[in-house]
């Protein structure tokens, strides 16, 4: 017994029949046979004389293999050429070296491709006849473009597809597949390029037993294997065993090495007549294979095979960076979602509600089916989750059996038999403990994935009758079948576990901060009340000054300017008259600004008196007040549907409608102006997420000039105008700021949906009566 890589092989099987009962021990590295599309000479590295020769030299050279043993290569080359070759032999290793040669000493002087390497204390000289290529000349610009595509691939899937397309283009094989190994060494076809009329193998899975361990070990050492015709008759070496070792030579790096008869039969059962495979290696492990199949014999030149090996090595060298980039992209998505969630937690008065009431929620944190937030005796369920009784059982199980702060599994049923009952929604569990004593958890659920794993043919080895005896053979049918994996979800990724731990720490910090703030708030409550009383007095003083001390002189300036204009206009030139008119406009504008400040101050100081109010009645009052203005501006007011009863401050709600309707008439340049008022449908998303179910959302829509989206937030700021002071009838720029303050005092929010030139829709939410 000898070890090849990490796999035991049995040298006693050399020359013995290979079946499915012993193929896992077949010494494939020492078959003592070659494929017949070339011939082989093994030389002693010291004497440079032939030690072994393939038996087909008689057909290819007219020289029997037995007559070549012990000779130097003067029967093939001139002394001068032989001297050139022998100089190279001292620098050879297991890596193959190609050159073209002419066999000058033969009568026909044929040309051959000579592939040389040194291994197992032998010089290996493999000769392939020069003949017309089966594919066209290498297109370097196309190869350069293809490699550029591989470099630019943004995902592993795209990267694999570029690789199979390039190998298909180079070789002309009917089918080229990229076969990726899983952790259990089974494989899946993840990329494919094949003739349009062929049945695709993309997505098919194959069991690990398809590729024995000794073959996998060889694939790590020799990057490329090629079979020109599966129906070949293997050519033995003469002698089969190396005289110095007493065993066949190790053909791990030989191009012409004959392959396992089991593998040949396997290919025949697939209808494959020619084959090539290229190893894909990552961190010293076999990651996958590039598999090439052809439905007729195909001799691909060594140069093109070598180029395909270059593609495989390039793929292998870039693979880790592509996988890392894909992981980083998902990690970036997780981080961005988490950052938005943390921002909401910091912004909202009760950070707990940010976990499930606004977008994004903890449901968006990972790819999952549902989530349960169990916090301070309250529970919020999002997505597909177990029912309350099942959730109680799960929480009790976590409390009793899981001391860790983070617990995750892709098969909860393997830990707890009760998990079978909830596998449809919760085969996979990711739970973070917020407070084990009070059984506070956030739990994410992943549903059972009845992974219909498609395998090419049955996994079990089949039996068939040969000459009346039952023997094992490779799978005769490649009809797909499915193997279901029960009670199992998609696995949780390490970066998801890390993100869950980070969320747990952030919630713990916010919770601690909340408790600390509550204590601090209780300690300084009296001081805050005192400061609040003083602030209210200062605001009252400001209101008094604004309404009396400032407005009175401004009114005097305004009136005296009017008197001057009336009495002395004929004594002033045109420039003086215009300056007086400007003074009148400025004084009037300043008085309006002070009035707006006063109104804003009142809104901020006074608490809203909420009571049930009929929106229909309030709108009717505002419409009556604005009736003349509606007629003057040719504006039609349309009430869409029945307006509800809401919980609001009637005076402030009236002001809101008055301001929004006035703006709708003012900022409109259409000859026929329209304003629509109605109730928005449930489930409407505001900038802060879904509007709570205890609120109704009203809207005021117009067909006016619209608002560019970049200004949607600015318009609610005090004294922020998008137009000149005299355009569209003037205005102080304080109206929407006052409306926003009024809506917020009633517990709601206001936002706009608008595009320049296409009208505007102002939405505002108000609470509903219990």
TrEMBL record:
Entries under SUPFAM superfamilies matching the protein: ATPase domain of HSP90 chaperone/DNA topoisomerase II/histidine kinase (SSF55874), GAF domain-like (SSF55781), Homodimeric domain of signal transducing histidine kinase (SSF47384), PYP-like sensor domain (PAS domain) (SSF55785)
Catalytic activity line of the entry: ATP + protein L-histidine = ADP + protein N-phospho-L-histidine
Native source species: Hymenobacter glacieicola
GO molecular function: kinase activity
Protein name: histidine kinase
EC number annotated for this UniProt entry: 2.7.13.3
PROSITE patterns attached to this UniProt entry: HIS_KIN, PHYTOCHROME_2
Record family assignment: In the N-terminal section; belongs to the phytochrome family.
Keyword annotations of the record: Chromophore, Kinase, Phosphoprotein, Photoreceptor protein, Receptor, Sensory transduction, Transferase
Enzyme superclass (EC): transferase
Occurrences of domain Histidine kinase (ranges): 545-770
Domain Phytochrome chromophore attachment site: 155-313
């Amino acid at each position: 017994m000898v070890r090849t890589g990490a796999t035991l092989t049995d040298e006693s099987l050399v020359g013995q029949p290979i079946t499915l009962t012993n193929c896992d021990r077949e010494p494939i590295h020492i078959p003592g046979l070659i494929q017949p599309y070339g011939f082989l000479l093994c030389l002693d590295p010291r004497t440079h004389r032939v030690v072994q020769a393939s038996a087909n030299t008689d057909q290819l050279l007219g020289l029997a293999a037995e007559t070549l043993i012990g000779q130097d290569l003067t029967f093939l080359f001139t002394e001068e050429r032989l001297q050139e070759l022998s100089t190279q032999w001292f620098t050879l290793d297991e890596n193959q070296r190609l050159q073209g040669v002419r066999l000058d000493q033969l009568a026909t002087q044929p040309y051959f491709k000579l592939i040389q390497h040194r291994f197992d204390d032998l010089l290996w000289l493999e000769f392939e006849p020069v003949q017309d290529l089966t594919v066209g000349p290498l297109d370097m610009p196309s190869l350069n473009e293809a490699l550029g595509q591989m470099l630019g691939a943004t995902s592993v899937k795209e990267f694999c597809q570029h690789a199979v397309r390039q190998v298909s283009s180079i070789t002309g094989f009917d089918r080229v597949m990229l076969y990726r190994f899983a952790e259990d060494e089974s494989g899946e076809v993840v990329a494919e390029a094949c003739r349009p009329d062929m049945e695709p193998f993309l997505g098919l899975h194959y069991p690990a037993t398809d590729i024995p361990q000794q073959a996998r070990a060889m694939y790590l050492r020799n990057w490329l294997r090629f079979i020109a015709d599966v129906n070949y008759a293997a050519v033995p070496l003469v002698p089969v065993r190396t005289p110095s070792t007493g065993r066949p030579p190790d053909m791990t790096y030989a191009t012409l090495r004959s392959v396992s008869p089991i593998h040949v039969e396997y290919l025949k059962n697939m209808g494959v007549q020619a084959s090539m495979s290229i190893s894909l290696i990552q961190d010293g492990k076999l990651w996958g294979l590039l598999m090439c199949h052809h439905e007729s014999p195909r001799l691909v030149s060594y140069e093109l095979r070598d180029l395909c090996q270059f593609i495989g090595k390039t793929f292998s060298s870039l693979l880790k960076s592509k996988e890392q980039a894909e992981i980083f992209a998902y990690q970036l998505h997780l981080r961005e979602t988490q950052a938005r969630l943390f921002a909401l937690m910091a912004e909202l008065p009760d950070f707990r509600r940010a976990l499930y009431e606004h977008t994004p929620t903890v449901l968006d944190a990972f790819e999952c089916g549902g989530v349960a937030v169990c916090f301070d005796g309250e529970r919020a369920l999002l997505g597909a989750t177990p029912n309350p009784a099942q959730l109680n059982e799960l929480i009790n199980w976590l409390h009793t059996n899981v001391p860790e702060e983070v617990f995750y599994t892709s098969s909860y049923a393997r830990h707890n038999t009760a998990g079978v009952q909830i596998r449809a929604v919760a085969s996979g569990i990711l739970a973070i403990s917020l407070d084990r004593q009070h059984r506070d958890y956030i739990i994410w659920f992943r549903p059972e994935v009845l992974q219909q794993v498609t395998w090419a043919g049955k996994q079990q080895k089949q039996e068939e009758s040969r000459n009346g005896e039952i023997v094992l053979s490779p799978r005769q049918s490649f009809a797909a079948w499915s193997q279901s994996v029960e009670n199992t979800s998609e696995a949780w990724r390490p970066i998801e576990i890390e993100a869950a731990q980070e969320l747990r720490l952030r919630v713990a910090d916010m919770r601690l901060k909340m408790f600390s703030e509550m204590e601090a708030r209780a300690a300084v409550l009296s001081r805050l009340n005192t400061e609040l009383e003083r602030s209210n007095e200062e605001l009252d003083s400001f209101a008094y000054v604004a309404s009396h001390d400032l407005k009175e002189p401004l009114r005097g300036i305004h009136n005296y300017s009017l008197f001057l204009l009336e009495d002395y206009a004929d004594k002033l030139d045109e420039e003086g008259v215009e300056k007086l008119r400007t003074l009148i406009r400025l004084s009037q504008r300043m008085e309006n600004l002070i009035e707006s400040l006063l109104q804003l101050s009142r809104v901020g100081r006074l608490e809203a008196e909420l009571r049930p109010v009929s929106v229909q009645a309030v709108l009717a009052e505002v419409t009556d007040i604005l009736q003349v203005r509606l007629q003057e501006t040719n504006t039609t007011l349309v009430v869409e549907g029945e307006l509800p009863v809401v919980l609001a401050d009637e005076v402030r709600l009236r002001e809101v409608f008055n301001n929004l309707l006035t703006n709708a008439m003012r900022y409109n340049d259409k000859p026929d102006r329209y304003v629509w008022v109605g109730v928005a449908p449930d489930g409407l998303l505001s900038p802060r997420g879904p509007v709570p179910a205890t609120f109704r959302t009203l809207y005021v829509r117009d067909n006016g000039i619209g608002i560019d989206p970049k200004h949607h937030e600015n318009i609610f700021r005090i004294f922020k105008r998008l137009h000149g002071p005299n355009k569209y009838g003037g205005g102080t720029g304080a109206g929407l700021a006052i409306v926003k303050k009024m809506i917020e005092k009633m517990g709601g929010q206001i936002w706009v949906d608008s595009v320049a030139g296409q009208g505007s829709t102002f939405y505002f939410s108000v609470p509903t009566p219990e």
